[in-house]
C-alpha cells in the first residue's frame, strides 16, 4: 500500500538543513519496507499481482494528486449579464394531452432555434380560433418572449408578442431574426433625420473623395 510519511521537526532540525530531513525520511522508508516484507513472509505471501485497476494513483487526499488527474468544478453563483434577448421565433401548437388541465390554459411554442427551450404560452395570447382550427396556424411564425422557467418544469413559460406572418417569406423571417438579437429596426426619429443632408440630390464632394478610400 502507498504510505504517506509526515516528518515533524522543530527549529533545531531545520538548522541541520534539507539534507538532514531527506536522510531521516529515507531511513523511515527503509524501515517501513523491511517491516512490510517481513509481514508478507509471515503471512505466506510470495508475490504481488498487479492488475489494470492498480495502475492509477491511490491517494485519498486529492490535494496530493497531479493536476492531470483532477477535474475542475465550479458553481454558478450570479448571472452578471443576460446575453440572450429571451425572444424567439417559432410556431404554436396544441398540447398533446387533451384531457389535462394545462390543455385548457396553455399552448406549446416551438422555437425555430433548437437551442431555445420549448415554451408554454397562455391560450389568451393565441388567435381566437386557434383551438378550433390549429392547422390554420401550423406555418404561421410568432414571436414569443420567455418570462420564467421554474426548476420543476421541463418547459419555460412565456408570452406571445406578435404574429409575424407565413414562414418562408422574407419580411417575417427578417423581422424574427432582428427581434431575436435585440436589433432596433424601428423608424428613425425626426432628430436623427435632421442630421442628414436636406438639399437633395446630395453628392459626395470631390474634396471628400480625394481624402477617403472608396469602398462602394
TrEMBL record:
The places in or outside the cell where this protein is found are: Cytoplasm
Top-level taxon in the UniProt lineage: Eukaryota
**One protein family per Pfam:** OB_Dis3
The UniProt entry, under InterPro entries, shows:
Dis3_CSD2 (IPR041505), NA-bd_OB-fold (IPR012340), RNR_Ribonuclease (IPR050180)
Q: Which gene encodes it?
A: Dis3l2_0
An example of a GO molecular function for this protein is:
metal ion binding
Q: What are the GO cellular component annotations?
A: P-body
- Point out the coiled-coil segments of this chain: none
- Any single biological process term in GO: miRNA catabolic process
Region entry Disordered, spans: 43-63
Q: Which spans does this entry mark as compositional bias, Basic and acidic residues?
A: 51-63
Q: Which residues form the CSD2 domain?
A: 107-182
Name of the featured protein: DI3L2 exonuclease
Name the UniProt key words of this record, in alphabetical order: Cytoplasm, Exonuclease, Hydrolase, Magnesium, Metal-binding, Nuclease, RNA-binding
